[in-house]
Amino acid sequence: MNIRENQEEKEYRNLSPFASHSRDSRGRERAEQECDIRTCYQRDRDRIIHSKAFRRLKDKTQVFLAAQGDHYRTRLTHTLEVSQTARTVAKALELNEDLVEAIALGHDLGHTPFGHSGEAALDEICPLGFAHYRQSLRVVDLLEKGGQGLNLSWEVRDGILNHRTAGSPSTMEGQVVRYCDKISYIHHDMDDAERAGIFSEDDIPITLRVVLGDSCRERLNTMIHDIVINSAGKDRVQMSAEVEEAMRMLRKLMFQNVYRNPEAKKEEERAKRMLKEMYLYYCEHPAEMSTEYRELIGRGEPLERVVCDYISGMTDQYSMAKFKQIFMPAAWAVY
């Protein structure tokens, strides 16, 4: 019995009966020889971490565009916080931590530059539509490794696709990530908003603070414990009605006070116009995209989708540099 088989046997002995066991995975779209050291979900986690799309997350906006300061979250730090929170919950519930980690690390690979404003821009202008959760799956299925994709396990792909609020993950591990994504961004976006001076504890109604706590730390602790307590020994991940409703109201408050706040979003419309102009430009000049994207068109992928692939894969800084290169006269570049 090799190391991987030993780990798979330990999963059967130690994990919850509701956990996803590596040896029972529904497999990959393309069959591969198993690793003698790592389980399938551990391999998926490693493939995601070593992907180009994962590295680019460090220079993609979370909430604050062009934030001034070293401590504001990026899409990468958001991803890492989701992963850590989800692993904490998975360990407490005796679920498969490797599967949870792979889903969490891959869930936002398809995000655009400039956060959800970039996503909205592409969705508005592309006739095929655009959504980051579908794009994340497209990244791992097709765009990585020169058009070959990462060939991930079915359970990881299902968790990535269904991490959004309206999603319905098929595994307990996917359900954990779905909850922890919301918990994490509510917590850290509020922390960033307080740092930016556009939100304070006094903005939170006392009714919510009584249920969830009087600080970001207390609220994070409350939500995590509530999931663990209410999901232990059950075949689905859930929160108590009281805490889930309080979390929903807190999320609504964040949309009103932070996500749509003029200070946080003062550059958002400019960013959207920039990405829309770039979309139109590359639809007219596809030969100016990178080779790997031109090859996708040659393989029969729709032009509009490939242009979205190209733009959504850009970091904030790279997209601004490309816009400047395309639309600003060279003689003006020194000013």
Label this structure with key terms.
single chain; 335 residues; mainly alpha; flat
Could you say which overall geometry the principal axes of the C-alpha atoms support? flat
In the predicted model, the low-confidence regions spanning at least 5 consecutive residues are none
Number of strands: 0
> What structural class do you assign from the helix and strand content?
mainly alpha
**CA-based gyration radius:** 21 Å
Measured as a percent range, the helix fraction is 55-70%
How much of the sequence is in beta strands? under 5%
Enumerate how many helices there are, as a single number: 16
> The biggest beta sheet, please?
none
| SSE pattern | HHHHHHHHHHHHHHHH
Q: Look at the structure and give the mean pLDDT.
A: 93
- Please report the distance between the alpha carbons of the first and last residues: 66 Å
Protein name: Deoxyguanosinetriphosphate triphosphohydrolase-like protein
GO molecular function: triphosphoric monoester hydrolase activity
Keywords: Hydrolase
Biased composition (Basic and acidic residues): 1-13, 21-33
What do you see in this structure?
- The protein is mainly α.
- Helices cover 61% and strands 0% of the residues.
- Helix 5 packs across helix 9 (172-196) and helix 9 packs antiparallel against helix 11 (216-231).
- The mean pLDDT is 93.
Give the secondary structure arrangement, pairings included.
Layout: H1 3-14, H2 40-49, H3 52-56, H4 75-92, H5 97-106, H6 115-125, H7 132-147, H8 154-161, H9 172-196, H10 206-212, H11 216-231, H12 241-259, H13 268-284, H14 291-298, H15 303-312, H16 316-327
Helix pairs in contact: 2-5, 4-5, 4-9, 4-11, 5-8, 5-9, 6-13, 8-9, 9-11, 9-12, 13-15, 13-16, 14-15
